[in-house]
Amino acid sequence: MKATQNPPTAVQVTPADLLRCAALYLRRHGWHQGTYYATPDTLTPPACAAGAIGIACAGHKVEHFAQLDPDALADYLATLAAFVDYLDNFHPLFLVDEDGFLIDEHTSPYSWNDDPARTTEQVVAALEAAADEWDRLHTQGGEN
Fold first, then answer.
1. Average pLDDT over residues 98-104
2. Does the pLDDT value for residue 107 go beyond 70?
3. Does some domain include residue 1?
4. Which InterPro entries has this protein been placed in (predicted)?
5. What is the pTM of this model?
6. Is residue 59 one of the residues assigned to a domain?
């Protein structure tokens, strides 16, 4: 690089990066079912998968993800979509109504997280595997 060139100032954060951050958050602070956070009045509460993704995107917990600034909201939606795509392909859990009709064509990350048989290890592993899958589909030779 020549002395007159400006080095890049911003690093592009990908959904894979944010999924790995969410997995790390759950390893450090704990996993939760039923709501985004186990104890909302705590700075770093145990979180569900979607809550951990939100914290990874915003850098802090938020009560409702519609309150995120536009950039963080775009990151949250893209990262949650990457996680849903992974769940659809590798851990499908579709909801069916009482007449046998499919309610949603995609696996709900909330229902998947809240399955009574789900474990912390499964959630962390799924977030990490979703990150690996995103990288596999979106990078070539380590480049975006």
1. 64
2. yes
3. no
4. DUF6197
5. 0.84
6. yes
Backbone angles phi, psi at 5, to 5 degrees: -80, 145
Q: What is the pLDDT of residue 8?
A: 59
Confidence of residue 129 (pLDDT cuts 50, 70, 90): very high
Give the chain's domain count. 1
Number of Cα atoms under 13 Å in the Cβ half of residue 11: 5
**5 domain-assigned:** no
Q: How far apart are CA 87 and CA 108, in angstroms?
A: 8
Residues in the chain: 144
- Alpha-carbon distance of 5 to 31, in angstroms, equals 45
Contacts of 66 (CB under 8 A, 6+ apart): 73
How far, in Å, CA of 101 to CA of 123, rounded? 27
Residue 139 forms part of a structural domain: no
36 in helix, strand or coil?
A: coil
Q: Which residues form the domain of 59?
A: 15-133
Neighbouring CB atoms inside 10 A of 50's CB total 20
CB of 93 within 8 A of CB of 87?
A: yes
